[in-house]
Design a protein that fits this description.
Strands 3-2-1-4-5-6-7 form a 7-stranded parallel β-sheet, sandwiched between helices. A 6-stranded parallel β-sheet has the order 10-9-8-11-12-13, sandwiched between helices. 33% of the residues lie in helices and 15% in strands. It folds into 2 domains: 174 residues, Glycogen Phosphorylase B (Rossmann fold); 160 residues, Rossmann fold (3-Layer(aba) Sandwich), CATH 3.40.50.2000. It is built from 11 helices and 13 strands.
């Protein structure tokens, strides 16, 4: 089978620090290649991959602010679709805009949504091309666009051996990811304060969330109780996750998939997460973490972390969230799609 993977170009593939879609596209390409699939990855030219790399974008957009995003995104998608005759399937990890090309080619174009249907402009495109086929990264994601035709749900997979297991953590809580109001970082600060534990915050502050950072996070920062360490590359993320008593993932929106949740578990670190979006599919309550309703519950959960087996956390991820699981899931999707099955699959 010949598969073209159209990766996103906002961040490098794989990402240096931030870039969830880029990480999934990379793992998807590598996983398929290990199963013997002929893979071509369309990404920015600074991508690092063992598969065949194709593309026209000189480097990831975040690496060079002089690159006009709309123009390069369009050229990027066009470069892939112009070579459609060379493939059996095009798999789109780049969001909504490439879907507009799908009816111009004679092969299936499978799109993984990555939660993008929550955005009104993206949803407009998806609903215009509702026949898909689309892939949800959790069953919960389908609530964002229930009228689309889904070929399956495939959980994101990570390279579990790349995450170091820590049976004995240090004495701090961790908040990791994009520092936006919907990520609940301000709630994590309150939980850590009430639990009388230090909190380490790692991640990026998007330009549109600078006001939130300055008003809700910065006033609490010090070198003792609440520390902000900025973006974390793979090595630092590994160390931070493994050393934490728990990851606080107090999201306030319908998140399609929380990669940091399974990354934390891969290190043996339990997760305390609000019962929103994909969390009930990612966290085994009382086994790999605690699913909570709010700050009060989260404080109680932190006090109960001793009941969670760190070894069980890693076993959970290894049982269903690996690169191999994801790659095999996508192969099953391709088999169904190529056989003519694009109906919704529960």
């Amino acid at each position: 089978m010949r598969v073209a993977i159209l990766g996103p170009i906002a961040w490098r593939v794989p990402p240096r620090d931030y870039g969830g879609w880029e990480l999934v596209a990379h793992n998807h390409a590598e996983g398929l290649a290990r199963l013997g699939v002929d893979v071509t990855l369309f990404a920015a030219r600074d991508a690092q991959t063992s598969t065949r790399l194709a593309g026209v974008v000189p480097r990831a957009l975040s690496e060079d602010p002089s690159l006009p995003p709309r123009a390069w995104e369009t050229l990027h998608a066009a470069a892939c679709f112009e070579h459609a005759a060379e493939f059996d399937v095009i798999h789109n990890h780049a969001g909504a805009y490439p879907v507009c090309f799908k009816r111009l080619v004679n092969i299936p174009v499978v799109t993984t949504l990555h939660g993008s249907a929550a955005e009104a402009d993206s949803r407009l495109i998806y609903e215009r091309y509702a026949e898909g086929p689309y892939v949800s990264v959790t069953d919960a994601e389908r609530a964002l666009a229930p009228t689309l035709h889904y070929a399956g749900t495939v959980y994101n997979g990570i390279d579990v051996p790349a995450f170091s297991f820590r049976s004995q953590p240090n004495r701090y809580l961790l908040c990791l990811g994009r520092l936006s109001p919907v990520k609940g970082v301000h709630l994590a600060i309150e939980v850590a304060r009430r639990a009388r534990l230090p909190l380490v915050i790692a991640g990026i502050v998007p330009p549109e969330d600078q006001t939130y950072f300055q008003s809700a996070i910065a006033p609490h920062l010090d070198d003792d109780r609440v520390r902000f360490v900025g973006p974390a590359d793979r090595a630092r993320k590994n160390a931070l996750l493994g050393g934490a008593l728990a990851l606080l993932h107090l999201i306030q929106y319908h998140e399609a998939f929380g990669l940091t949740v399974i990354e934390a578990n891969a290190c043996g670190t339990p997760v305390v997460a609000t019962a929103r979006g994909s969390i009930p599919e990612l966290v085994r309550n009382g086994e790999t973490g605690w699913i909570v309703g709010g700050v009060d519950d989260a404080v109680d959960a932190v006090a109960s972390l001793g009941a969670i087996s760190r070894a069980r956390c890693r076993e959970w991820v290894a049982s269903r969230f690996t690169v191999r699981h994801m790659a095999r899931g996508y192969l099953d999707v391709y088999d169904r799609v190529l056989a003519g099955g694009t109906a919704v699959i529960a």
